[in-house]
User: Fold this.
Amino acid sequence: DGGITQSPKYLFRKEGQNVTLSCEQNLNHDAMYWYRQDPGQGLRLIYYSQIVNDFQKGDIAEGYSVSREKKESFPLTVTSAQKNPTAFYLCASRGTQAGGETQYFGPGTRLLVL
Amino acid sequence: GENVEQHPSTLSVQEGDSAVIKCTYSDSASNYFPWYKQELGKRPQLIIDIRSNVGEKKDQRIAVTLNKTAKHFSLHITETQPEDSAVYFCAAVRRALTFGSGTRLQVQP
Assistant:
């Protein structure tokens, strides 16, 4: 867990504004993931990337975008098209070597709409 | 895609009792099943996992069982303690984690 960092811890978004959440890992993991958690709910997959310069939509990708230009970084942009962005956003990473199924989570970013 | 159902949504036990949480999954290709514990406002923490070629795994007071034929797996916590109080999530993995909806466990002193 300590090898994954997210910033900021809290983020406020105004109407019509795009905001970007940072996720960095120093675990040399190939795969990275973004999840959204609403209060009292489980985690839902937004986007994931299994290798640099490649990413796939998850279950709730609409209104979000990502990039994976570097192995250690997987930023998430919440666009103005996401009409209900208030949630807890969790980034995770996973090694893809044999037996490396375990996903480790960052500390999360709580996004609030002003 | 994968669908994971988790029951019960809330569970209250007395300290020292056992707690059991059950999950079912839909994708027979899922091959890895982790359990996470999440305390309020914190990140999920892996507590135990099981791979599809194993039927049961234990780690001190925690155990997980897997029935691939029936596509269900369960978390068992024995001798519960107040610090076990949290939300527990099961998940099934093929390419990414698909989570259950969570179980809020309350251990009464």
